[in-house]
Amino acid sequence: MSAADQQVDSAPGGLPEPWVDGRRPLVGGRVLRNFSLQLGGELIGQAIAFVTAVYLARALDPHGFGVWVFASSVLLYFTIVIDGGTDTWGMREVAARPRRL
Fold it and tell me: Is the pTM of this model over 0.90?
């Protein structure tokens, strides 16, 4: 095998690319699917929160709505403190050991 053939069959770092049945895997399709699912879930959650806030603003009197907004704000601060970076830690652990999932 010549040096030109080796360059075609290997990635820039010299490592062979993962080929399945002579075709390159669709890594981009998997990323796009995961991104779309994450985006869809986030948009649905935001829409539900918006509809709930509009409903409560119309159903409660101004004092009751103010109490609800204050309670939501306090809970948000507790969520920030409790989270404390567990999202980042979890992503790092899953990336380090994907088979444990």
Answer: no
φ and ψ of 53, to 5 deg: -65, -40
SS3 10: strand
Same domain assignment for residues 49 and 84: no
**Range of 32's domain?**
20-59
Task: Give the pLDDT confidence of 29-87 residue by residue, as tens digits.
Answer: 778 888 999 999 999 999 999 999 999 999 999 999 999 999 999 999 998 888 888 88
Q: What are the C-alpha distances in Å from 86 to residues 8, 11, 12, 93? A: 42, 35, 35, 10
> What is the number of H-type helices and E-type strands within the chain?
4, 0
How far is Cα 16 from Cα 3, in angstroms, rounded to an integer? 14
Q: Between the CA atoms of 19, 24, 28 and 34, what dihedral angle is there, to the nearest 10 degrees?
A: -50
